Structure formats: C-alpha cells, structure tokens
Amino acid sequence: MPELAARRLCTATIRRWTTAEGRSSRGNVDTKSAQSRSTFVASVPVGGLASPLGDGWTATDTPPKDKGALHVHSWGRASQPRVVCLHGVTGHGGHFAPLGRSLTGCEVLAPDLLGHGRSRHAPPWSIDAHVEELLGVAGDRPGTWLGHSFGARLVLELAARAPHLVERVVLLEPALHLPPHVALLAATSALAGRTYASLADAVEGRYEESVLSTAPRELVASELAEHLVQGDDGRFRYRFTRSAIVTAFGELATRPPPFSIADVPTLVVLGRTSYLTYDLHLDDHRAELGDLLQVVVVEGGHTILWDAFDQTAEAIAEFVAARAA
Predict the structure, then answer these.
(1) How far is CA 312 from the centre of its chain?
(2) Which one of 92, 168, 212, 250 is most buried, counting C-beta atoms within 10 A?
(3) Are 70 and 86 in contact (CB under 8 A)?
C-alpha cells in the first residue's frame, strides 16, 4: 500500500473509531489555556527509510557514550532536581533541547530510545526493553518523568515497575493505547520509506507529516539538522530504525497500566488541534488522580514542543517548580 494511501486509511479509521467508541467530556480544563480543544483527527506521522543496518544508521556511527545502550542528552547539573524526558515513536532525545535549556533549575536528561538516534539500534525494542534501559539511566535517583506521545506510555510503564523513581509525571499529548486495527495500519504505513533531497526538503515535508500549524521554521530546522543523517546516496534519512517504529505501534495495541500506578502530581498538556484525542482516557485519569491531575490545553497540534513551545514550556516550568514549593 502506498504510504499516503495508508496514512489516509489510518486517518479515516481513527476518525471512525473515536466516533464509534464515543468521547467523554474533558470536564474542567485549565482555563488559562482555553476551553476544550478540537477533536480534529489527521494523519499519523511516519518517516524513515531502509538501509542495510537500519534507517539512518551505518556501521560508522559511534556507540552510545553512556554505560548502557542509550545515548543520553543532558542539560543542567546533577545536583539539581531531575527531569527525565522521553520522546515519541519517530523522535529522539534532542527534541527536548530547547526545553532542557529553559529549565535552568533542573538537571534534564533526554535519552534516545532504543532504535533511535545514537542509542543501540539492534533489537529488542519492546516496552520492557525500553523500560529496562531507562531504569539504568535513572539509577536510584527519583525525579519528574516527562513523556511525549509514545514516551508518555513509557512513563506509565516505568511507574508501574519502579514507582519509587517517579515523583511527578508530565504527559505531553500522550499516546497510551491504539486499538489493534489502527496500530496495524500505522505500522504498515511506517514500513514505507521516506528520503529527502535536502534538509530544507525534509523541513518542508515535516510540516505536512506532523500536521504542524504554528511551529517556527528555525526551530524545526535546528532539530532536524541533528535528527537527520545524509546517506552515501546524498539523500537525508531520519536517524532511527523502521523496525523499532513498527514494534512501537504494535506495543501500543496492548493495554497500558492503570492510572492508579502513578498516583503522583501529574500534568497533562494537550494540543487543541492535535490528530490524537485524549478524551477516551481523561475521565478515567481524573477519577483516579482527582486533584493531583492538572490538564492544560495549548494552541497547537500533536508536536506541541514545536507548535506551542512557549505555552508548553511555561506550563512544565510552573509544574516542576511546584515540587520545591
């Protein structure tokens, strides 16, 4: 199936599923970020392409600089309160660079997940494998765990396995679960390779792929300059392994842990025009956490650290600062 056709079919299926299952009310959402967001659903972004050892990866790449299998981006000092940031299915730890620099009172760690960036690209890429490596990053030091999209699912999985490490939770546009038929369509779409003639071509393409609306072009270009790698054929590819992307979509078809396992102060930040909806989870989340749950809606789509960086970073900074209050 051609990639665009798969994406359109995936879009239609998600729209039908969310309509058939019904959407619960968001309730009282933080009014400083406006009222309930739109339930607009657009195409699931996918990317990458084939290479002998994996998308955007060659035998000349350096191994992870850290002791484990994960390459970890970091900002701040180890003596400061810790924030660990986990990226989405097609992202990398460098996505959090602007946020890491803005949280001046924190030590911010952002690993490249398995199969991504400069971390180990060989399997396994299961949720259990991700969590095992993340526990190695955390050591015995608790902190705030932040996850965007698939990264939010990993935060909950880690909280289920090691609750003593999770003091506070931040979920940005969380993708916690996909029904199996939607996960299949997303994974099938991810199999289709994608290359770019230039960095500018990739940046332009990302606006369509991620359904970006207000993201500053220089912000997107700066990140993609790190996330893309130029192959021997001169074309640019994302620095991840497509097989890891397919595995992630398959894992999202499994049920996530109950919200009760992360019974800690939690911030959920949603994009008003995102192609994903959190409405199916919000009532359950609020019922489990009560006043511990704060929901903020910002003006943007699914990639809110691009579309609505200032609003999102401000909400995160305020939430993290409350830890010390």
Answers:
(1) 14
(2) 92
(3) no
How crowded is residue 67: how many other Cβ atoms within 10 Å of its Cβ? 9
What values do phi and psi take at 289, rounded to 5? -100, -25
pLDDT in tens, 171-224: 999 999 999 999 999 999 898 878 999 999 999 999 999 999 899 999 999 999
Residue 286 and residue 293 in contact, taking contact as beta carbons nearer than 8 Å: yes
Query: Can you read off the two tokens belonging to residue 2?
Result: 């051609």
Coil/strand/helix, residue 296: strand
Give Cβ neighbours of residue 41 (< 8 Å, ≥ 6 apart).
11, 14, 15, 18, 275, 276, 277
Distance CA 18, CA 158 (A): 27
* Interval 45-56: pLDDT, tens: 333 322 323 444
State the virtual CA torsion across 33, 111, 89, 310 in degrees, nearest 10.
20
Residue keyed to tokens 């902190």: 143
Locate tokens 């003593």: which residue? 164
- Residue 62 tokens read as 């350096």
The packing angle between helices 279-289 and 3-21, to 10°, is 50
Decide: 135 and 143 in contact? Cβ < 8 Å.
no
Task: Answer whether 153's CB lies under 8 Å from 258's CB.
Answer: no
Three-state DSSP state, 72: strand
Residue 149: exposure state from Cβ atoms within 10 A (0-12, 13-18, ≥19): buried
Q: Where are the domains of the chain?
A: 3-321
Give whole-number Cα distances, 161 to 10, 14, 134, 154, 157, in Å: 32, 30, 11, 11, 6
Question: Which residues lie across from 237 on neighbouring strands?
Answer: 229
In this structure, which CATH number among 3.40.1120.10, 3.40.50.300, 3.40.309.10, 3.40.50.1820 belongs to the domain 3-321?
3.40.50.1820
| Nearest-angstrom CA–CA distance, 79 and 226 | 28
pLDDT of residue 75 exceeding 60, the answer is yes
pTM of the model: 0.84
How many other CB atoms are there within 10 angstroms of residue 140's CB atom? 8
